[in-house]
Prior knowledge:
single chain; 0% strand; flat
Amino acid sequence: MKKQKAFNITYLIGLAASFFFMIWIFIFELYVLNYSFLVFFWVVKYLSGFGLILSIANGFLLLFDKFKNQLSKRGTNILIVLQFVIPIIFVIYAIYRIFSSFYGGAGIRMVGVWADFYVWIDDIIYIYGISSLLITLYIIPIIRDEFDDAVNQTRVSRFKVGAKSIGRGIKKKYFSVRKKHAKVQLQDQMTGKEVLVSWRNKFAVYLMIPIAVGSLLLMPLAFILIVLWLKIIFFEKIDIKIHEKIALLISIIILGVVAILAPYLELVFYAQISNLFWTINIFYLIGIGVASFIYFRKII
């Protein structure tokens, strides 16, 4: 009880100090910290690339599940090949985006209505990408009190994962004997998807520190993220209080709103980092690459 009270006092003092430090930053115009916000976009883009491969995995899982009784060995092999080809296409696209954005959109030659349409679609993807990512990875898990489950698994949850893995192994052998190739692959698809989901959720927690670094300009938000990360990773036996979860939820929402509005309101920090914004595509490529590697290992 005393430890919790001491922690609460320290938390409030730290929060107040970070607020005054933020005011000090704005008063003395320490715009060098504006560049830190680029880190936030790096994290978001990395998770976005990772999530893209997860979406592809979900798509193939649905295909195998829906047509598991109709697919022949040849049809199954075609889908397996496509599972490798499609992520590779996105890797190539991500590489193209790096060079395209670095050279200011080189390679895109659109005028008139098509140019407006391209910008409109690009804006929708940008807004949807950030909002959907923060909602699915942070806001909903925080509300459901599931945010730290991926890194703080109980013995029961680990046992369930192990039992499920054994069960699928048995099913694979059974379907292999009966030459049900699509059903064999379906087991790998389910495992691959679950592993990707697990890693994505872990990254969401582990990457709170880079997100905090990316929000140094808004120091109280960075403080909240760092404190919660420390409690989740190093002090998992200490319960996270409701006010801390609310603070985290508000912090994520504020960061999301700022990130979405920054390009359109021409905020000062965005104007400073805009010439380096092409670097976010590097992390998009890394996210796709890491997720593809994990996915391929599970479906081979």
